[in-house]
Amino acid sequence: MSDYSSSSAAAPAATVLPATVYLIAVGAFALGMASYVTAGLMPMIAGAFSISLAMAAQLVTAFTLAYGLGSPLVVALLPARAQRSGLLIALAVFVLANGASALAPGFTSLLAWRAIAGIGAGVYLALGIAAAAGVSAAQQRGKAIGVIMGGMAGGTVLGVPLSLLLAQQLGWTAALWLVAMLGALALAGLLWKLPALPAVPAISLRRKLSLLADGQVLAILLVSLLAAIASLGMYTFIAPLLAWSAQGAPISATPFLWAWGVGGIAGSMLVGPWADKVAAPKLTLFILLLLALALCALPLAAGWSAWLMLAPIALWGAAGWALQVPQNQRLLAVRARQGDGNLAIALNESALYLGSAIGAAAGGLLLLLDWPMWLLAAAAAFIAAVALLLQLPAARRT
Q1: Nearest Cα to 107, choosing from 49, 68, 184?
Q2: First to last CA, the chain
Q3: What pTM did the predictor assign?
């Protein structure tokens, strides 16, 4: 299939998105909370189980590895006729695993339940994006995917601080119960509202694995991987960058984290309508340009004043989150004929988590080698620029 190109210019005026899309987004909000809340709960969990912070940090590793590596395998094994039930079961597993995490009697069982929650989250998001696109009109699919990614971003930006405040008052398990409750609300709504999803052809596992030989898919995944290395990898080092810019003066990272997160919500929501008007490869190219420029501006602004970084950080968050809307939209289009777009999306999510891990590890290594912080930000901008160059051929073919 050729690169995705929107035909919405000739489409009628957009109508309201189906309620199903917003219910899926509520589940994505819970996923966004679950992905990052454990990092904030680590000191409380370490104290509760009398373990080190390094050991408690493995809860994040268990969730992200299971999300990134386990969910594509589950999606690949899912029968073609089980898309609707698979979505509901994945969300149910996510809800139960978070509830069981709150009730875990020991750290080993907590670690196991976080891994199960990660698999449920990854499968749900992949199937949820495909379902949101399937129940929406053709000229609204980009907007629908944007709402889902906006829910994910909202869970990170708004849900995580809320759950941490709750944990400080009622204990660390309260945060996980909040995640489970929101997931249960989404599950109840989807059990009521989720219609039968468009049929997909039955595909053998061998044919599904042939997706990895699709040059277009691999190119899309590579761009997502590089963008994640640059964007999510650099996110790990916001606090050290602020400390370098402030030259030792005390400065809170909170306003800057909020700027990144609010930018992410805005980018996810605003890119949706554009994704239905502009060809996905060209929109991806434009977003990568914004990401590279924002990362380039970071060390320049930091050299003058830490507070000047608020604007590029907000743009960076907007571009980083917005990028996955046209990327997922294009994957669905590229694999529409084969009927395995949900697996392609699961692999794309894996690329994001892998890119985040690579970026964090590489940045830590560069700091060990005494690279200055401004050069670390410049390296992230360079990687974003490489992704931009790799995207150029696809944009030109559109």
Answers
A1: 49
A2: 12
A3: 0.76
